[in-house]
Write a structure and sequence with these properties.
The complex is a heterodimer of chains A (350) and B (257). Chain A has helices spanning 44-51, 74-80, 99-110, 114-127, 143-155, 173-190, 201-207, 225-230, 235-240, 269-277, 308-317, 327-331, 345-349, and strands at 2-11, 18-28, 33-37, 59-64, 67-68, 84-87, 161-165, 193-198, 210-215, 218-224, 253-260, 281-291, 294-304, 320-324. Chain A is α/β, with parallel strands linked by helices and 350 residues long. Chain A has two domains: 2-224, Rossmann fold; 235-349, 2-Layer Sandwich (Alpha-Beta Plaits). Helix content of chain B is 77%, strand content 0%. Chain B has one domain (31-243): MetI-like (MetI-like fold, Orthogonal Bundle), CATH 1.10.3720.10. The chains are: A alpha/beta (350), B mainly alpha (257).
Chain lengths: 350, 257
Amino acid sequence: MISLDKLTKVYGHGDHRTVVLDDLDFSVAAKEIFAVVGPSGAGKSTLAQCVNLLERPTSGSVVVNGENLSTLNEAQLRVARGRIGTIFQSDGLFSRRTAAQNVALPLEYLGVTAAESRRRVAELLERVGLSDRAGHYPHQLSGGQRQRVGIARALALRPSVLLSDEATSGLDPQSTASIVTLLKELRDDLGLSILFITHEMDTVLQVADSAARLERGRIVESGIIVDLLQNPHSVLGRALQPARAHASAEPGEVTWLLGYASSHVPADWLIRMSTTLATPIRLLGASIESVNGATVGHASVGIHGAEPERIQSVAAQLGLSARLETSASRAGSIADANADVVPDSLERVA
Amino acid sequence: MSAATLALALPGSLRLGNEVPLDQIAALVFPALGDTLIMVGIVMAIVVVVGIPLGALIHNLGPEGLFENHALHTVLSWTVSVGRSLPFLILMAAIVPFTRFITGTNIGIAAAVVPMSIAGIAFFTRIVENSLRSVPTAFVRVAKASGASPLQIIRTAQLSEAVPSIIGGITINTIAMIEYSAIAGTIGAGGIGYVAVTYGYQRFDHAVMIATIVILVGTVALVQFAGDRLVRLTTPRIRTAASRGAPRTRAAETIDA
């Protein structure tokens, strides 16, 4: 369990004062994977460095298992860092050390005996599925394998919190998927709290239970992933599952964006809706998938000659949100997303 | 006893026109090479022992270092620059009183070691600093996050990663010291450079001159070869490529560039 309490980081003084992190408050429970996403320059890397205690926050605190780590002195801090394992972006392995020697680093720093270190390293490499690569140097490993070594190293001191700082950035999709699977396994087996900092929305959808959107140093939105996806107002939800280009409507048709706004949308909603409205509904594009056990997604449909209010009420009964496509939503732009028309009836559904 | 061996025994009493017989050149040149190697060996030992910690200290006092300290960094860096900026001959002459204070003499090997060490340390400190600068700073963050103390960070995340580059620097430095030893030879430090100057240059003994040139070229080539070999051995990327029979590249040279 890790929580940030009013975490603020300011660089510079006077006119050059820049608030990089502004009053961040969130916590990651044991067995939870919490993603923080944001554009570059939002403060993600500073957040990572404050969490693994490489940077001291200007104010506020980082609390791990009830212990406030922000008030520790340098020597205590060195010990405390053992409680937080960090997985860095792929370049974090020492080039002149083998996989096993890289994993052994934190144990070596701690002064663990060679025999004990060997045993623990073997156990860790086994855990990440790289026992047969112990003697390989980083340049002999693939990107995904290097990252597995990084994960084994992060786990060396049996941390309760794992910080993943852009760990899957730069990996190919297969490697990313295998790292994501490994992280979820570790979370379940070791009861870790995982803070997953990334700019890759796709990966967030695969890995996280909850997510927060960091923008200009502030958390502007956060919640459980499924809730975010089901909330048609959520900018983060829409960024996680963006509407892609779809076929265009026939003349006379109106294009509607329908979103899964609850976990109880019947799979045959398209037919049901068409029957209830007594008009054909043409599917122009859709993206529907299962995330953390819930079916989520959205569809663009072309509907001919039906009252907008009626469409919305029928959709709402099926657990769908419905809004007219505007040029802004069609462009899929996050910045303009707030301008979308969202009918009131949806509030009750969501 | 021939006149030539007399000249050998008394190098001070120059007898122009009397050239060293060819069969005696080896007896003249090889002991001199031995003196050079002893001199350079002692100097390099001092240079490495002092230069590596000093280079690491200056690096870490600098911007983004582990113990950033602008004032101390400026003072140390400036001191090293002074040592680097004087031509060796001038430096040697300038510190004669200091040399005499340390060694009790201002001629011979002992006296040559003092100015050579000072010049060598200044040179090598910059080389170490430069090598450390080329190590990605991400490694320092990794070590810190893994619970390393500052000394552990310097040893494992900075120096260890820079080993091939530092070995390349030691090679360059050793060759520079062989050169300096010839200059030091002019204050009676002996060595191969001294033989080249007194016999080859001052007495126009071409055979001795050629012999010293061949030996110097051979020595330098050997040092460079050994250095390159060590760089290769300490760089896993190159070592493992070579052992797998992959085509050899000239990558070893670019490491210390």
